[in-house]
Design goal:
mainly alpha, 4 helices
Length: 90
């Protein structure tokens, strides 16, 4: 892997020892271990952020809303009529 960016990290001695021991157990360098662990945690957080979680009640309300026939409100009906007039005038 070719490094294209650098990231420096200061650790206290106990944290460095812990990471060093963990890296050794994984058969990798400290940098490789930290990079792998950080990427794994980052991916987990990004995946969680991208997911929408609904309660059972909210899911049932959502399901009901998408199953019900759409009825445009008066403001939307007015906007649709105005758009149709503009389109006919072109």
């Amino acid at each position: 892997m070719t490094a294209s960016a650098r990231f420096d990290l200061k650790l206290d001695a106990m944290d460095k020892d812990l990471l060093s021991r963990a890296a050794s157990l994984m058969g990798t360098t400290m940098a490789g271990f930290v990079r792998s662990a950080a990427k794994e945690k980052a991916q987990t957080l990004v995946d969680q952020e991208a997911r929408i979680v609904l309660s059972k009640r909210d899911m049932l309300n959502f399901h009901q809303a998408v199953q019900t026939a759409f009825q445009p409100n008066p403001a939307l009906q007015k906007a649709l009529r105005a758009a149709a007039k503009v389109k006919r005038a072109q």
